[in-house]
Request: fold
Amino acid sequence: MIPKLPEGELLYAVGDIHGRADLLADLLRQIEIDAAGRNASKTTLVFVGDYVDRGPDSRGVVEMLLHDLPEGFDALFLKGNHEALLLDFVADPDMLNHWRMNGGGATMESYGVDVAGLLAAKASPVVWHAVFTAKLPEPHLAFYESLRLRVSTGDYLFVHAGIRPGVPFDAQDETDLIWIRHEFLDSREPFGPVVVHGHTPTDAPVVKPNRIGIDTGAVFTGRLTAYGFRMGNRVSCRPEIRSGSRASRRPARASGW
Reply:
């Protein structure tokens, strides 16, 4: 049976952004254009998490998500492991090195933290924490704290990383939902709903009977993917922008609704 959404509903799932506000802006424009020709009664954006870290403009990404989404779209935001790392540091300065090893320095710089200066001064984690939390806008902190672990609609389940096979949905552990890899990725068993996820980057979206992976490694490849769903049909919208002084663009790929 072909997985479906509720009648008249149009949904775009957006992969891991990782501080690439430039790619997100382009992708949102393409989604808006595409949706205008679909005549849906309801249009929803689902972001699968990892808005921050590694890329140059995590703050800009969050600003866009809070204030610059296409008009008339509903939006649902999932929690990725990188948002969890940020929140862990906000709660406990001793989590600094764990976050920095996973790209947190780029996020702090995007909020105006002088990372190089703190490193040169050999500042303690408590000092890093005080500087970062002073720079972090309250609406951004509220955004990170409000992120969901999963979204279910129609025959699809949206999570950041995946689910642990054999465990009921209501008993899934947060760590698995935002960190799991091989146990989920290698599983061929049907999960019930088709699981749509990010977290594990691939060159192109991965479509299997039990899951759809949409992390195309934006921060590394210059490709940010959105995958569209409507009444059992799918279309991918993936503008490709390569880093450098000149942006090279190719049309978004589309496969029939």
In short: The radius of gyration is 18 Å.
